[in-house]
From TrEMBL:
Lineage: Bacteria, Bacillati, Actinomycetota, Actinomycetes, Kitasatosporales
Entry-linked Pfam families: adh_short_C2
PANTHER family from the UniProt entry: 3-OXOACYL-[ACYL-CARRIER-PROTEIN] REDUCTASE, SHORT-CHAIN DEHYDROGENASES/REDUCTASES FAMILY MEMBER
Annotated EC: 1.1.1.100
Keywords, alphabetical: Oxidoreductase
Gene source species: Streptomyces lichenis
Protein name: 3-oxoacyl-ACP reductase FabG
Domain spans labelled Ketoreductase: 3-173
GO MF entry, a single one: 3-oxoacyl-[acyl-carrier-protein] reductase (NADPH) activity
Amino acid sequence: MSRSVLITGGSRGIGLAIARRLEAAGDRVAVTYRTGEPPEGLLAVECDITDAAQVDAAFRKVEAEHGPVEVLIANAGVTRDALLLRMSEGDFASVLDTNLTGAFRVVKRATRGMLRAKKGRVVLISSAVALRGESGQANYAASKAGLVGLARSVARELGSRGITCNVVAPGLTETAMSSGLSDEQRANLVEQIPLARLASPEEIAAAVAFLASEEAGYITGAVVPVDGGAGMGH
């Protein structure tokens, strides 16, 4: 059956790959974006997830066009990298507000309709660095690790109502963010990956699509790494 799907940060990279995957499967897909051009062929809603009023307005627009959100993919995120001693409180707080508190805002809003329907799928996009850490990314790693606690708490609270909440933790992926790496940086990072390459956005999307499917109905509170083995042991 065609479902109403909302993907935050779905205008490019991993978010867009997820949107295309679910659209191809027949779902009614909407995406939020904050900057740049909205993707063609999808219901695109401009929304800054650090603003609760904008989040509510985005959901109301999606609900009016596609019906209550049945699948939520919380993907929107930012980085403000710096070594700990050089990281400002503002940069730490802004990353947590987008990546973690932003996810809280959209999950809270989406689950209103899911509770009424007594079913729903929530997938939070974390990162391999959430559990293994990364130099220069204390804010980003902390925000992405927080998504695990958020997801598992939501899974316990709402599981009895037919709502699942899971986490996908991508490793380094071929996106605009990774394209900014120098050849030396890229080589050093690939050396740490047992599969010796970066992921494609489509590989991340495949894991998300499974967790959002009917077949994954008995999986909740899980963290699924899609990182080429980079995070093993964490």
